[in-house]
């Protein structure tokens, strides 16, 4: 009887452990999402408030003009730091040197640094990619299902101006709103807590039809049809030319859960200058 009871305990544990694993995954996933959402919201609120109080030119036609202001870039927010090249450090693997560098960043960049990732090449907002729009470089992230498209509508700025329903900016003081700083900060939530990742087949992409693995590529590189390579785990979730990653499971290309979380803030401009 004791042997039978021990056997039943193992079965019970196997059943309960699956539920516990799912609960643990849910706690980690939603806990991370809530933390990111709070940090992004605080950053958006601080950025909008500080811009509204700066004596910026009345000639600026949009919030993007304000974001390019030298004073804003040096003290409040610099869009270029959303993708920081680790080669700028004397030792790209020195975490202490990276932290010392971040300590000298503008305030909002420091606030966002806690939700940025180190992929071995850059320290950046996950999935962020520099794209040239109307001759100017902007840091954007691809929307959830934009992996196979390169249209501008399939991308969104990390720091995005909130426009009217007609697509007009509220920022200029001569608008009906009288000059408003309206912005949102977008951040991609990407979770694979419920997926298994094993090394890919050595000889062919689908040599093992039951294989479950991530295909990765260096940031900025496109995926190829060659067999995927197992690289640094830090790059697995956001590899490829659009930072979306790509996963194979049961012989089929899939991709982990991914949604964009946004923090939004609106402040009326208080100070103007010619």
How would you describe this structure to a colleague?
With 274 residues, this protein is of the alpha+beta class. The chain has a domain at 28-192 and 258-273. It contains five helices and 14 strands. The protein has helices at residues 2-52, 63-67, 70-75, 95-102, 107-112; strands spanning 56-57, 83-85, 117-118, 122-124, 128-133, 136-142, 155-157, 159-161, 180-191, 212-215, 246-249, 252-254, 257-268, 272-273. Strands 2-4-3 form a three-stranded antiparallel β-sheet, with no helix packed on it. The protein has a three-stranded antiparallel β-sheet with strand order 5-6-7, with no helix packed on it. Strands 8-9-13 form a three-stranded antiparallel β-sheet. Strand 11 and strand 12 (252-254) form a beta hairpin. The model is unreliable at 196-201, 203-223 and 225-233 (pLDDT under 50).
Strand order of the largest sheet: 2-4-3
* β-sheet strand percentage: 15-25%
Mean pLDDT: 77
Instruction: Name the structural class.
Output: alpha+beta
Please tell me how large the radius of gyration is.
23 Å
What series of H and E elements makes up the topology? HEHHEHHEEEEEEEEEEEE
Biggest β-sheet: count, sense, barrel? 3 strands, antiparallel
Q: Could you estimate the helical fraction of the residues in percent?
A: 25-40%
| Helix count, DSSP H or I runs of 4 or more residues | 5
Which stretches of 5+ consecutive residues score pLDDT under 50?
A: 196-201, 203-223, 225-233
The overall strand count is 14
Distance between the termini: 90 Å
Q: Which of globular, elongated, flat, extended, rod-shaped describes the shape?
A: elongated
Organism: Bremerella cremea
Domain TadE-like: 7-49
Protein name: TadE-like domain-containing protein
InterPro entries: TadE-like_dom (IPR012495)
């Amino acid at each position: 009887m004791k042997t039978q009871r021990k056997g039943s305990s193992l079965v019970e544990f196997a059943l309960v452990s699956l539920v516990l694993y799912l609960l643990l995954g849910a706690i980690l996933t939603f806990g991370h999402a809530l933390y990111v959402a709070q940090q992004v919201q605080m950053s958006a609120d601080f950025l909008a408030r500080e811009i509204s109080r700066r004596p910026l030119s009345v000639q600026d036609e949009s919030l993007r003009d304000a974001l390019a202001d030298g004073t804003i870039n040096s003290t409040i927010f610099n869009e270029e730091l959303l993708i920081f090249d680790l080669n700028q450090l004397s030792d790209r693997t020195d975490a202490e040197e990276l932290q010392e560098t971040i300590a000298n960043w503008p305030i909002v960049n420091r606030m966002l640094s806690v939700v940025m990732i180190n992929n071995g090449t850059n320290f950046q907002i996950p999935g962020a990619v520099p794209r040239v729009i109307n001759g100017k470089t902007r840091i954007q992230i691809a929307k959830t299902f934009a992996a196979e498209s390169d249209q501008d509508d399939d991308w969104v700025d990390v720091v995005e101006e909130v426009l009217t329903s007609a697509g007009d900016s509220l920022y200029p003081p001569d608008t009906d709103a009288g000059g408003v700083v309206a912005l949102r900060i977008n951040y991609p939530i990407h979770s694979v807590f419920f997926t298994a990742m094993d090394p890919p087949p050595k000889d062919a992409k689908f040599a093992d039809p039951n294989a479950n693995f991530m295909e990765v590529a260096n940031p900025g590189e496109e995926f190829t049809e060659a067999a995927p390579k197992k690289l640094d785990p830090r790059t697995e979730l956001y590899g490829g030319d659009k930072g979306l990653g790509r996963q194979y499971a049961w012989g089929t290309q899939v991709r982990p859960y991914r949604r964009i979380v946004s923090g939004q803030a609106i402040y009326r401009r208080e100070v103007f200058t010619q």
